[in-house]
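With this grant's support, the team has encoded backbone shapes as discrete tokens. A representative record is reproduced below.
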Amino acid sequence: MSGPPKPGQRTTPAGAPGGMQLFDRDGSRKYLTVAERARFLRAAEQAPREARTLCMTLAWSGCRLSEALALTADRVDLAGGVLVFATLKKRQDGIYRAVPVPPSLLEALDLVHGIREAQRRRGRGAAARLWPWSRMTGWRAVHAVMAAAGLSGPAASPKGLRHAFGVAAVSSGIPLNMVQKWLGHAQLSTTAIYADAVGAEEQDIARKMWG
């Protein structure tokens, strides 16, 4: 049986589908902090090229691992500065969302995966998956970088990167409806869990109120 919530820990909020929380049943944090995500990205710089770009994509877009592995060259919008993901957890197919990402990620994707070259071909690279890997292969690549960064526990996972994106976005003052769009949540109540950030992230939010 799990003990009482830790200081700053919140129980399942009303309306949160599936009871999504930022802590597991043992009270362990399920998201990477800003500092931990930075360590992860530094470790990714030393990983094989395809693993590095996968890790960067997960960290900077907040997408699910399955969504990243389904990404094709035609959905990398170099001019618009966005990645276009098929939102795979929706109940119907053909639901897409565009997520703005840093220029450094777009440059890395083009360098490693030949985005511009693929988009010049017939079909604009619609059949060219960036990572033609199984989910397990992708998970192992991310796990290896987490280990190299000295990260472990529930947060050291692709889902931990997704949660980190949500917390970082809210901490930066991004409106919840925008974060909802970027993460592909069906309900705003799911996204609202990221307003429940703790530790340094909660302190950053509080400082904005203090002026």
Remarks:
- Confidence is low (pLDDT under 50) at residues 1-17.
- The CA atoms of residues 85 and 97 lie 5 Å apart.
